[in-house]
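Renewal narrative, Specific Aim 1. Our central claim is that a sequence can be written position by position from structural information alone. The example that follows is taken directly from our test logs and has not been curated for this report. It begins with the structure tokens describing the chain, in the order in which they were read.
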């Protein structure tokens, strides 16, 4: 090897080693004090600091999720990183925890001089390995407490089992001493069931706009928000949650008396609470308010449905006497969490790991790929197989009979030329023409008109006309995970790509081929104002009654009331739920029904108000940017849940 080449190799290795030596992980914080649940997302905060080196680090911070039985990554996340000398930076990720997740491996991958060099082909430097703790059971209750001055809730209920719960669910309480620890995106609450807020200023100065949006999105997606009252009156007034409370906050009063019915429900059996003066907020119920504890004169605990979740408001401060007594606190919180701690969506979530709908969706994409993939099989491979067989077969016959040596020579010469020309032409066309990529999507769109927001859950299958590496870009705050499919082939697991969670979310280095689709799940919250609303094959569900509507147009304004919705309804004779559906819609609806994916809707059925309006659209709600020529096919099931107007 030439001396100049040896020198270049040595120089490149030197700079890589210098880049590896300039940064290290100072702190890694996963989940909420390492609390997480299998099959959910969890926040990951990594503090990177540079060593005393003059050379800055330029590259990517990569997090690999590894399983129990192999070093092969099962999920990969990355973020661009530029770290100057003596600098410290914090990077935040949201990590999906598959069933077999066992370890997080944090790496630094320097940027190479060639922009075309794949990140996966660059030698990384492992700076931290994090062994995941035993996950919480999906049936357990993960309760976060945001109380910057501290409280006693952990002492009341932590590690306690709830009587009457299915299988003896246990409560796990984790304290957040600082509002900065609240997730910036709703997906960070994925494993959280209940968030309790006390003695925390709820203004944008303390809780950013992104944190406020994330919290409210999470509640509407099924979370439970509990707000302490009493001397928290001034904090709740004018806060971002006040418009969505089940009650109006009239005034703060002092009293030393509790009605007998309230005393019993609050856990004061055998105790004298009437000698203790405490503060309570005078509540006036709003439309949709449900009184859990209280009388007509004074509500002590109120609740309202908020999308798929719920908001519970306490008139008193649970951390102040007499409610902070150990016996009272244990009894009250045990009863509250047992009866109202989880929304219907989160309660049904305990069965999520045994559902098979994702595997069946992937099987559908796979079978569809086989049916439609024949024209997309690489022609070069076919020519290399079929044409030699053709030449050898007929050439052998001619050679055997030897009728004319001139014909045999011409046949073999012309056949070889034909093979070379065919292969060269098709190979050249593959390089000249863009690779066609097909993206099939089956989605569920849940619309929450109270805040003009909607949650979009999409199952996406990507395949190409020829095996290739591509990338898919989304807008910020989209979250993508690889579909968990039982497949022992290593090459299949390596097709998941690398998810960059920066200003623009992008799935890079995604391998696609015509033989087997790459399937993943995407979730994002959208503004309702961006969505069209003509629904096809629509159903109107009131309690246990179902009315078929056919095609219907919706008004997504927040002023939409139950009466306004009913004026648009022209009931028809209810047919078979699947009779009016065909193709992907029929298949998707059957899978959702067979696997009870939407069972929480039945659990929340209310005979007094319409439960939901459900229909179909064949239109994309978000832009997908795929390298190359992309074809999309979309089918979306829309669930419109008329909410209670917060102004009423």
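The sequence written for that structure reads:
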């Amino acid at each position: 090897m030439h001396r100049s080449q040896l020198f270049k190799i040595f120089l490149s290795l030197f700079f890589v080693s210098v880049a590896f030596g300039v940064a290290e992980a100072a702190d890694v914080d996963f989940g909420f004090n390492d609390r997480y649940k299998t099959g959910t997302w969890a926040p990951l905060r990594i503090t990177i600091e540079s060593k005393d080196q003059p050379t800055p680090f330029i590259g990517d911070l990569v997090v690999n999720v590894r399983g129990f039985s192999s070093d092969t990554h099962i999920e990969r996340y990355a973020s661009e990183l530029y770290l100057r000398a003596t600098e410290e930076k914090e990077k935040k990720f949201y990590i999906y925890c598959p069933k077999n997740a066992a370890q997080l491996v944090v790496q630094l991958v320097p940027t190479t001089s060639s922009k075309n060099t794949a990140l996966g082909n660059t030698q990384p430097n492992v700076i931290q390995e994090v062994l995941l703790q035993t996950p919480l059971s999906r049936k357990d209750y993960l309760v976060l407490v945001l109380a910057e001055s501290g409280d006693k809730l952990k002492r009341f209920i932590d590690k306690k089992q709830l009587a009457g719960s299915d299988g003896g669910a246990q409560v796990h309480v984790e304290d957040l001493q600082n509002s900065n620890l609240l997730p910036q995106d709703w997906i960070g609450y994925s494993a959280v069931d209940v968030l309790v807020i006390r003695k925390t200023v709820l203004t944008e100065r303390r809780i950013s706009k992104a944190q406020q949006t994330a919290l409210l999105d999470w509640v509407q997606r099924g979370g439970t928000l509990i707000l302490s009252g009493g001397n928290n009156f001034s904090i709740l007034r004018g806060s971002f949650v006040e418009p969505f409370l089940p009650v109006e906050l009239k005034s703060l009063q002092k009293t030393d008396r509790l009605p007998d019915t309230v005393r019993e429900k609050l856990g004061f059996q055998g105790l004298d609470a009437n000698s203790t003066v405490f503060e309570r907020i005078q509540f006036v119920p709003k439309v949709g308010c449900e009184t859990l504890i209280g009388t007509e004169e004074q509500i002590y605990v109120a609740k309202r449905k908020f999308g798929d979740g719920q908001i519970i408001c306490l008139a008193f401060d649970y951390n102040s006497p007499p409610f902070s007594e150990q016996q009272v606190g244990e009894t009250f919180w045990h009863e509250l969490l047992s009866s109202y701690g989880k929304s219907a969506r989160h309660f049904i979530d305990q069965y999520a790991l045994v559902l098979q709908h994702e595997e069946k969706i992937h099987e559908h994409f796979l079978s569809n790929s086989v049916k439609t993939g024949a024209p997309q099989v690489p022609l070069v491979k076919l020519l290399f197989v079929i044409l030699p067989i053709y030449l050898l077969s007929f050439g052998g016959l001619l050679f055997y009979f030897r009728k004319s040596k001139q014909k045999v020579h011409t046949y073999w010469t012309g056949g070889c030329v034909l093979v070379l020309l065919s292969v060269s032409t098709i190979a050249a066309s593959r390089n000249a023409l863009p690779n066609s990529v097909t993206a099939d999507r089956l989605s569920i769109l849940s619309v929450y008109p109270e805040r003009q927001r909607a949650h979009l859950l999409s199952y996406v299958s990507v395949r190409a006309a020829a095996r290739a590496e591509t990338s898919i870009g989304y807008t910020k705050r989209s979250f993508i995970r690889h579909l968990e499919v039982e497949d022992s082939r290593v090459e299949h697991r390596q097709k998941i790509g690398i998810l960059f969670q920066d200003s623009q979310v992008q799935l890079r280095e995604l391998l696609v081929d015509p033989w087997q689709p790459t399937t993943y799940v995407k979730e994002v919250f959208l503004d309702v104002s961006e969505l069209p609303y003509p629904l096809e094959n629509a159903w109107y569900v009131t309690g246990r009654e179902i009315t078929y509507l056919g095609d219907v147009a919706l008004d997504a304004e927040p002023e939409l009331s139950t009466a306004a919705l009913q004026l648009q309804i022209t009931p028809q004779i209810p047919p078979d739920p699947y009779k009016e559906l065909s193709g992907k819609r029929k298949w998707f609806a059957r899978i959702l029904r067979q696997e009870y994916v939407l069972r929480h809707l039945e659990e929340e059925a209310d005979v007094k108000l319409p439960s939901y309006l459900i229909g179909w659209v064949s239109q994309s709600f978000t832009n997908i940017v795929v390298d190359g020529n992309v074809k999309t096919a979309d089918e979306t099931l829309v669930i419109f849940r008329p909410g209670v107007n917060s102004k009423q």
